[in-house]
Amino acid sequence: MADTILLERRGVPSAAICTEALQASANAMAAIQGAPGYRYAIVPHPVSSLDAEGLRAHAKLAGPQVLEILRGPGAGAETRGDT
Q1: Domain assignment of residue 79, yes or no
Q2: What is residue 33's predicted lDDT score, i.e. its pLDDT?
Q3: Where are the alpha helices (DSSP H) in 1-83?
Q4: Residue 48: which domain range?
Q5: What is the DSSP letter of 34?
Q6: Computed from CA positions of residues 30, 48, 50, 15, in that sequence, does the dihedral angle turn out positive or negative?
Q7: Which residues neighbour 16 within 8 Å (Cβ) at sequence distance 6 or greater?
Q8: pLDDT band at 73 (very low <50, low <70, confident <90, very high)
Q9: Which of the listed residues 10, 15, 25, 45 has the most CB atoms within 10 Å of its CB?
Q10: Rounded to a whole number, what is the distance in angstroms from the first to the last CA of the chain?
Q11: Do the domain assignments include residue 47?
């Protein structure tokens, strides 16, 4: 979480991905970094024991969230050029 926040402060668009079980830690780290309420993608826990198919399923869950974070709040089709 801290790395993602630091990258964003340097102008690098970034998105963190966190498991449900680690949300409290992610929120605490964001607050410590001076970014309370920082948005990140959330996937089910655990990740480390998943096989390739499980990782694909998690990626499918995280992908849309990451895109939404990178596009920013209120980025509808008209601001993305999807119209």
Answers
A1: no
A2: 96
A3: 2-9, 23-32, 52-71, 77-80
A4: 2-73
A5: T
A6: positive
A7: 1, 4, 26, 38, 40, 41
A8: confident
A9: 15
A10: 33
A11: yes
CA distance 38 to 51: 29
Pairwise CA distance, residues 44 & 74, whole Å: 26
21: Cβ–Cβ under 8 A, 6 or more apart, which residues? 45, 46
Question: What span, in angstroms and rounded, lies between the C-alpha atoms of 63 and 32?
Answer: 26
Structure tokens that stand for 64 in this block: 């849309």
pLDDT tens-digit map of 7-66: 999 999 999 999 999 999 999 999 999 999 999 999 999 999 999 999 999 999 999 999
Q: Return the pLDDT at 81.
A: 39
Q: Is the pTM of this model over 0.85?
A: no
